[in-house]
């Protein structure tokens, strides 16, 4: 299994967007530097959680540095770039901060599934030395991350009229 380690430092852009009709959308996390373009598939819930985590991180950084990270998303191009060829599906993401360079790093790790396709349960075995998930590190400014957070939340909300339903039937009793 190939193991990719991609470092976009610094990233020229980062975005989350979707392809497909409402109810069948596929979410993509995409970033680029120079001519390198990296696309990854993520879940809707991961988009929402990442947006919230970025907001909380930036709020904390703003308090610590006595600043206010502001961004005008309408002036940024947050659309996906072509070609959209995902390198992997994301299992987990993490955020970090490099104080010296004032950069936020978004780390996306590949979902690795092992096991026989006929088995009813697939398992993840990260102890196996031959299986190493691919990793993408995206280094961004606070403004880029603020834009990503706002745009990701708007993208999640742009699906169904009530995103909390997420395709589930909701019963009401009176």
Average pLDDT value? Answer: 85
What is the ordering of alpha helices and beta strands?
Answer: EEEEHEEEH
Q: Order the strands across the largest sheet as they lie in space.
A: 1-7-6-5-4-3-2
User: Treating each run of at least 4 consecutive H or I residues as one helix, how many helices?
Assistant: 2
The percent of residues in helical segments reads 10-25%
Biggest sheet record: 7 strands, mixed
Shape: globular
Residue fraction in strands: 25-35%
Number of domains: 1
pLDDT below 50 for ≥5 consecutive residues: which ranges?
A: 117-122
| CA-CA gap between termini | 55 Å
Structural class: alpha/beta
Question: How would you briefly describe this protein structure?
Answer:
The chain has 174 residues and is of the alpha/beta class.
Can you walk through the features of this model?
The protein has 174 residues and is α/β, with parallel strands linked by helices. It has one domain. The protein is 22% helix and 30% strand. It contains two helices and seven strands; from the N terminus they run ββββαβββα. It has helices at residues 44-65, 142-157, and strands spanning 5-8, 13-19, 26-33, 36-42, 86-98, 103-110, 135-140. It has a seven-stranded mixed beta sheet. α1 runs antiparallel to α2 (142-157). The relative contact order is 0.25. Mean pLDDT is 85; it is low at 117-122.
